[in-house]
Structures are given as structure tokens and as C-alpha cells.
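Priority: medium. Attachment 1 of 2:
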């Protein structure tokens, strides 16, 4: 049995982790830490089906766990990851702190010095694209929610070298409101968000652009430019990314589809939809799946749609998939 510690269990991602781990046959939560509610019980802080004591960070018994999940804000998570590694405990970090490979890239996109640069580079935990680097890893950087949808949607094109990277890849994404976490912000209030649909941080300002470009360049072996328009969608959970990619003009959809089928053959969590069927949140919410749709809009212009549940394949489910890989378990364990 893998013994797990959770930092940030009162947050949306941390709580989702605890819910899935409750059903995991080979992992169990040994303890959970809360910065703001230590000494209380989880059910008193987050009304819901789960209950357990909430510890202060100083009470964490490192000898009682094999791995910890840091479901904490970026800037906070890396220091906890450093403490865990010093205690010989493995880490899956759900924040952005370990995703960029250099402290310079972190400073560029997050506007701060990296809190634990000695942990970089950390293997990027998107198992479908980077599985070999995750087996036996001591630390894994769990990908961002938007990047997960985008990278799974684009990877076959970039690996095969058929995306024309002289042109930027245009990505329009819409995320359910849980993607912003449980902190209070005016634009997330029910009255502001419901029956509304708004873009934010458009262009190349959203922090996930750096992460997407890093991983797209690794797949393509050449730099890739992303123009990104994230939107706030008034649903609880789910991300739909629509991506416009220039490809070689002589390619037909059947050839492109074969590439996707080959890339994702045997992948239990990725489903390539029939030609012309766009992905939708209904294919994926409450699951660890990614659904991908392919449409050739005109010769040389492919539209890829990719849907995930931001809290599951975009966070907690992917983190559990990552410990399954890390500890040599069946990758689907606890995730069906
Ligand atoms: N929401 C998503 O869809 C999603 C997807 C992918 C990745 N992520 C990433 O996963 C991490 C957690 O996200 P989340 O959505 O679960 O966030 P959240 O709902 O805001 O929860 C974060 C938790 O971190 C704890 N925390 C500890 N120190 C803190 C501090 N100094 N300031 C604020 N909170 C602190 C808080 O719980 P205690 O006070 O109880 O410790 C809080 O509940 C973030 O880095 C986020 O970017 C989120």
C-alpha cells in the first residue's frame, strides 16, 4: 500500500485527490496538512463526504508516507517539495513550481525567483507523452490544466513534424470556474460569472504559455509559438481547448487521423473522436479522460478540439496516474 500525504487538501485539487484516493486499491491517505485550518477536521472546513484531522506542516510525519502531493499555490509548493525530498519522500507537485525547466523561465513567467531551483529540471508528468521519465522518479511536475488539454491535442502533429511552426498555433480555451481555485475573487462571484462568458489574459500573457511552448518545443524539436486566449466558462469543471494549426496543404484527414490513432493506441485515458466530431465537456467531466476531435477546415488548416476535466486529468487524476507510474502500478488503478 502506498502511503500518501496531501498538502492543500482543503483546496479544489487537494480535495479531489482525497476523493479519488479513497477508492484507490493500492494507496491511502496517511495524513493531510492545512495551512489555514490545522487542528480542525476536514468536514468542518469543507462540508462534504470526507473527514479526517488537519495537521499543521510541522506535524507532518515524513516516516509515515511514501509520497506527498503538494496541491498548493505556486511559490509555496516548491518549499514543501524541497522539505519532502530532504526527508527522502517522493513528491508530485500540482502547482506550477516544478513545471518549467529553468529558474530563468520561472522568473520570466511567474515574476519571482524560484523558491527551490535545485529541484529543476523535474520530469514533466504527462504520462502519455513522457512515461519513461516518470518511472521511479523521485519528483514529478504535474502539468497545468490548460497545457494538458493542449499538449495531448497537438502532440501527434508536432512529433510527426507536420505542423508548420513558422506560423503561431492559435489556442482558444474555456475553463470551468473551479480552475481558478477556491480563493475569492470578484470575477468568480456567481453574479459576475454565471450567464457570462469572458476572455482573460489573452495573447501571450497567461503563465501557461511558457509551459506549453516548452513542452511543444520538446515534442517538435524546434521552437513553437502559442497565441492563447483563455476564457472563463460558467460551469463548475471542464476545459475545452480549440486549436488552429497550419499543416502541410497536401495532407488529408485520414492521414492525420492515423497519426493520432498510432500515438494514442493503448492509451486508456485518451479517446480520438470520429472525424469531424468536436470534443465536448460531456465526454470527459468526472473522468480522467481526454477527448480529441479533428476537423480539416480547409487544405492546410486543421482544427483540433481537446476536452478534459480540469480537476481530474488536469490535476488530481493525472497526479494519481503519475504515482501509479512512479511506483510501477497499473496506470489505471483507482482511476476507472
Ligand atoms: N483548480 C484546478 O483546476 C487546477 C488544475 C491544475 C493545477 N492546479 C494547481 O494546483 C494547486 C492547487 O490548486 P487549487 O485549485 O486546489 O487551489 P485552491 O482551491 O486555492 O487551494 C489551494 C490550497 O492551498 C492551501 N494553502 C497553503 N498555503 C497557502 C497560501 N500561502 N495561500 C493560499 N493557500 C494556501 C490552502 O489550504 P490550507 O489553508 O487548508 O492549507 C488552499 O485551500 C495550484 O498551484 C493550482 O495552480 C489547479
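Attachment 2 of 2:
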Amino acid at each position: 500500500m502506498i502511503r500518501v500525504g496531501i498538502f492543500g487538501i482543503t483546496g479544489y485539487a487537494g480535495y479531489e485527490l482525497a476523493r479519488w484516493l479513497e477508492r484507490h486499491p493500492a494507496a491511502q491517505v496517511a495524513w493531510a496538512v492545512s495551512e489555514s485550518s490545522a487542528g480542525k477536521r476536514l468536514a468542518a472546513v469543507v462540508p462534504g463526504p470526507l473527514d479526517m484531522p488537519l495537521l499543521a506542516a510541522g506535524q507532518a510525519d515524513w516516516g509515515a508516507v511514501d509520497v506527498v502531493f503538494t496541491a498548493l499555490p505556486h511559490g509555496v509548493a516548491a518549499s514543501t517539495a524541497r522539505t519532502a525530498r530532504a526527508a527522502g519522500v517522493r513528491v508530485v507537485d500540482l502547482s506550477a513550481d516544478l513545471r518549467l525547466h529553468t529558474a530563468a523561465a520561472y522568473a520570466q513567467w511567474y515574476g519571482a525567483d524560484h523558491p527551490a531551483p535545485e529541484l529543476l529540471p523535474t520530469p514533466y508528468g504527462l504520462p502519455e507523452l513522457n512515461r519513461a521519465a516518470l518511472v521511479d522518479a523521485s519528483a514529478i511536475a504535474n502539468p497545468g490544466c490548460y497545457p494538458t488539454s493542449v499538449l495531448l491535442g497537438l502532440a501527434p502533429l508536432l512529433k510527426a513534424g507536420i505542423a508548420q511552426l513558422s506560423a503561431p498555433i492559435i489556442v482558444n480555451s474555456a475553463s470551468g470556474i473551479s480552475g481558478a481555485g477556491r480563493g475569492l475573487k470578484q470575477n468568480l462571484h456567481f453574479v459576475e460569472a454565471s450567464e457570462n462568458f469572458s476572455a482573460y489574459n489573452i495573447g501571450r500573457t497567461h503563465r501557461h504559455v511558457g509551459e506549453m511552448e516548452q513542452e511543444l518545443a520538446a515534442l517538435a524539436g524546434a521552437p513553437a509559438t502559442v497565441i492563447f486566449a483563455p476564457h472563463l466558462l460558467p460551469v463548475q469543471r471542464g476545459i475545452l481547448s480549440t486549436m488552429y494549426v497550419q499543416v502541410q496543404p497536401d495532407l488529408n484527414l485520414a492521414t492525420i487521423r492515423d497519426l493520432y490513432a498510432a500515438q494514442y493506441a493503448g492509451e486508456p485515458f485518451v479517446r480520438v473522436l470520429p472525424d469531424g466530431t468536436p470534443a465536448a465537456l460531456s465526454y470527459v467531466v468526472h473522468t480522467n479522460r481526454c477527448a480529441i476531435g479533428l476537423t480539416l477546415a480547409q487544405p492546410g488548416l486543421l482544427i483540433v478540439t481537446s476536452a478534459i476535466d480540469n480537476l481530474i486529468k488536469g490535476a488530481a487524476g493525472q497526479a494519481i496516474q503519475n504515482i501509479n507510474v512512479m511506483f510501477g502500478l497499473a496506470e489505471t488503478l483507482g482511476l476507472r
